[in-house]
Specification:
5 helices
Length: 178
């Protein structure tokens, strides 16, 4: 499948939100309950405008449609869209901190066609160019396989709140850039 990568723009937000919803509902079915997914779409999953404004969020397009997105961050926040309240915009120090890999979502109709891997490689290159030597991320269960295949090492999985009384299992993962 042919696709191109470009920086996301603030004008992409409505289409990004639709892509995120398709991805979460279509690719999380075997790992999370429908209730968990729907509640995650209210904050844990969603568009993060800070990534777009920072110029660190990418979209993959095919035939004029958004088919994937993902980015990296030099800020402390590990996950969550604009609607998530607990966010930390403090900038990380490349000499001592790991950059963050953030908000990867692929259209289920285009999954497993190299889109996420291409975005991830672009993010790694950009973080490296900004002086970062390590990367951290908070993986969803469906994402663990990709990140592991790309050299990310998992930490201990944990339950993270997405709503009052509802949690989701996420896996912290890290990679040292060479």
């Amino acid at each position: 499948m042919a696709f191109t990568l470009r920086l996301a723009t603030l004008e992409d937000r409505p289409e990004l939100q639709k892509l995120i919803e398709r991805s979460a509902r279509g690719l999380s079915a075997g790992d999370y309950t429908p209730q968990q997914v729907e509640l995650a779409l209210l904050g844990a999953y969603g568009v993060d405008s800070t990534l777009i404004r920072d110029g660190t969020y990418f979209v993959a397009e095919s035939e004029g449609a958004l088919v994937g997105c993902g980015g990296w961050s030099r800020r402390r926040t590990m996950y969550g869209g604009d609607a998530l309240g607990a966010r930390d915009a403090v900038e990380l120090d490349p000499a001592t901190d790991a950059a963050r890999i953030r908000a990867f979502f692929i259209d289920p109709a285009h999954a497993r066609q190299g889109i996420a891997r291409a975005i991830l490689h672009r993010c790694e290159a950009e973080a490296r160019a900004h002086g970062f030597k390590r990367l951290d991320l908070m993986a969803t269960l469906p994402g663990v396989r990709l990140y592991r295949a790309e050299g990310y090492l998992p930490g201990e999985a944990g339950e993270y709140p997405v709503a009052e009384g509802v949690t989701m299992r996420f896996v912290p993962m890290s990679k040292v850039l060479e």
